[in-house]
């Protein structure tokens, strides 16, 4: 254990050396050892001594977490880096353009939205306690020393995000970062069978407030409350390729093509039937069990694929449907 403490204190000394502070390693070793002897875990003991030294030498956490030790990573690489890491969070540097600032849903969050670079997009979240400078839509910034992490949504999807904090710096960039349209980015080829049309597909209503496209629930936007909705069409589907399941999203034009009707025609059909789910039921009957070939772009901040181009093939043979459905259900639940 003494050897481990010595190594931990040596690393601690290196951290402070990077902030131009020389610590008394003998004293730090003694403090860590005393805490360990009181059954405090070594990592927790080092954290306690680090915090004490920061107060003594008036050093901020950001000075210790120098961005020189981080890699500048493309946003599309964040998910794989997070998944490969031993820790829940990793420290990275990123550069991105602010694409879509969102309205925070909590007073604890100061800024939240979607950023992008040439490789893809990702969610960013800045908490009020961090007191960071405000970023503006359309502007490009370097985000040094930020946390990259992931969380699981209520529907089971994984979302990846970067979280600037007190240890981070945000610098405006002189050069504009170009973020390609999803069609320009190209996509992955996915061939498989549609095994599920998810709830919320078909005819929906979006918030009519400028700059907001959130889907209304019972006539209310989660940000703007009760508003006049604007109708739209979409498909949220699951495609099984025999090995994996993919969450795929068809936008307005693609959904209109599959349905064979426009948004206005879908609205008229729903009014005639006094049933908003007419389009969703039609999509289920026309897609579930059919083979599809997709060109779809992966959204770096989630498990979702956005369909750029598609072909719908013949229905899967009857004797294959149960096997596909069972495999897909197992993959979805895994």
Describe this structure as you would to a colleague:
- With 334 residues, the chain is of the alpha+beta class.
- It folds into three domains: 2-60; 69-172, OB fold (Dihydrolipoamide Acetyltransferase, E2P), CATH 2.40.50.140; 184-333, OB fold (Dihydrolipoamide Acetyltransferase, E2P) (Beta Barrel), CATH 2.40.50.
- 31% of the residues lie in helices and 33% in strands.
- It has ten helices and 14 strands.
- The strands form three sheets. Strands 1-2-3-5-4 form a five-stranded mixed barrel. A five-stranded mixed barrel has the order 7-11-12-14-13, surrounded by four helices. Strands 9-10 form a two-stranded antiparallel sheet.
- A hairpin with a 6-residue loop joins strand 1 and strand 2 (109-117).
- Helix 2 (25-37) packs across helix 3.
- The relative contact order is 0.10.
- The model has no long low-confidence stretch (mean pLDDT 83).
Short summary:
With 334 residues, this protein is an alpha+beta fold.
Can you tell me the number of structural domains? 3
Q: Which homologous superfamily in CATH is the superfamily of the largest domain?
A: Nucleic acid-binding proteins
**Sequence of secondary-structure elements:** HHHHHEEEEEEHEEEEEEHHHEEH
CATH topology description of the largest domain: OB fold (Dihydrolipoamide Acetyltransferase, E2P)
- Low-confidence residue ranges: none
Amount of helix: 25-40%
Radius of gyration from the alpha-carbon trace, in angstroms: 25 Å
Largest sheet: 5 strands, mixed, barrel
What is the topology, as strand order, of the major beta sheet? 1-2-3-5-4
CATH top level of the largest domain?
Mainly Beta
Strand content: 25-35%
């Amino acid at each position: 254990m003494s050897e481990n403490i010595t190594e931990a204190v040596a690393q601690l000394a290196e951290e402070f050396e990077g902030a131009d502070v020389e610590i008394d390693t003998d004293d730090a070793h003694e403090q860590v050892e005393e805490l360990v002897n009181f059954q405090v875990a070594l990592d927790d003991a080092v954290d306690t001594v680090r915090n004490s030294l920061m107060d003594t030498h008036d050093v901020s956490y950001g000075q210790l977490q120098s961005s020189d030790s981080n890699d500048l990573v493309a946003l599309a690489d964040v998910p794989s880096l997070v998944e490969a890491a031993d820790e829940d969070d990793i420290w990275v540097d990123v550069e991105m353009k602010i694409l879509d600032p969102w309205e925070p849903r909590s007073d604890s969050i100061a800024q939240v939205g979607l950023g992008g670079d040439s490789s893809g997009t990702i969610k960013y979240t800045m908490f009020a306690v961090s007191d960071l400078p405000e970023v503006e839509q359309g502007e490009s910034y370097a985000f040094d020393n930020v946390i990259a992490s992931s969380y699981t949504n209520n529907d089971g999807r994984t979302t990846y995000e970067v979280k600037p904090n007190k240890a981070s710096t945000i610098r405006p960039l002189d050069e504009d970062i170009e973020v390609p349209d999803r069609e320009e980015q190209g996509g992955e080829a996915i061939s498989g069978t549609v095994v599920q049309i998810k709830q919320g597909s078909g005819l929906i209503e979006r918030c009519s407030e400028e700059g907001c496209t959130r889907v209304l629930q019972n006539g209310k936007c989660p940000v703007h409350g009760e508003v006049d909705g604007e109708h739209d069409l979409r498909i949220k589907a699951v495609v099984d390729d025999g090995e994996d399941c993919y969450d795929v999203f068809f936008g307005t034009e693609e959904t209109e093509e599959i349905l064979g009707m426009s948004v206005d025609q879908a609205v008229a059909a729903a009014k005639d039937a006094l049933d908003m789910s007419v389009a969703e039921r039609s999509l289920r009957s026309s897609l579930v069990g059919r083979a599809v070939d997709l060109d779809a772009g992966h959204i770096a901040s989630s498990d979702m694929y956005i369909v750029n181009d598609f072909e719908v093939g013949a229905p899967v043979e009857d004797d294959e449907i149960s096997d596909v459905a069972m495999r897909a259900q197992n993959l979805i639940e895994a």
